Amino acid sequence: MTSSFNLTGAPNFRDLGGYQTADGKETVRRHHLFRSDHLGNLEAEDIQLLSGKLREPVRVLDLRGVTERETAVCALEGVTVHSLSIEPTIVQVLSDLTDAGHKLTRADVVGHMQDTYRGFVRQNTHRFASLFGFLLESSDPLVFHCTAGKDRTGFAAALILLALGVSREDVMGDYLLTNQRLKPKSEWKGLTPDVASVLYRVQPEFLDAAFDAVQQKYGGLEAYFREGLGVREAERARLRELYLQRK
């Protein structure tokens, strides 16, 4: 199972290593792949801990939009940060609706979150394809993150684990771990606390919406890997070589 680092400034930072493949023969290597919330609030103790745990060189893939990046710059020194910008459309959608006087319900917000995840497939597949390009370059430690490390990062982590042969059950389990790592917030302009709390958690229905979009547009996950992400059998073999080890 994945292990967290208990960072004060990035509570959702965790190692994807430790998951076993569905056939039980291999496990994801530890200390190679890390998912996280943004790295702009790291405290001195966090940085010291990471510097002792991450072997160099460290690559950082930032999935945040332009404004998000500008307001919270990566606090780690000596790392190479690559921007794979996916703008947070849910923020604008909900702001426009509440500004127009709409009283949104939990079901409304869940529906808009599902639309966000469908958008990962319909509008942002090229970003996730770029992520796999970096994965295939080398096995140097790679940290990928967005702001909270739950939606854009959650879909990215799911794709990586599935490409490595981890079971759907374990993939969903990793996705839902975010709810244990992040402290829920209950404030959003124009939303009741109960409704606002939907934004700060993940639900199976969100990730399922992305995979439904994969099915609709590509006919299945394997076709999505090949045609959408450019991850064919040779690339899958390379990923297994870099990131899996025999039990």
TrEMBL record:
One of its GO terms (molecular function) is protein tyrosine phosphatase activity. InterPro entries: Prot-tyrosine_phosphatase-like, Tyr/Ser_Pase_IphP-type, Tyr_Pase_AS, Tyr_Pase_dom. Pfam families: Y_phosphatase3. PANTHER family: TYROSINE SPECIFIC PROTEIN PHOSPHATASES DOMAIN-CONTAINING PROTEIN, TYROSINE-PROTEIN PHOSPHATASE. SUPFAM superfamilies: (Phosphotyrosine protein) phosphatases II. It is an enzyme of class 3 (hydrolase). Its EC number is 3.1.3.48. Keywords: Hydrolase. This is Tyrosine-protein phosphatase. Belongs to the protein-tyrosine phosphatase family. Transmembrane segments: none annotated. Residues 126-172 form the Tyrosine specific protein phosphatases domain.
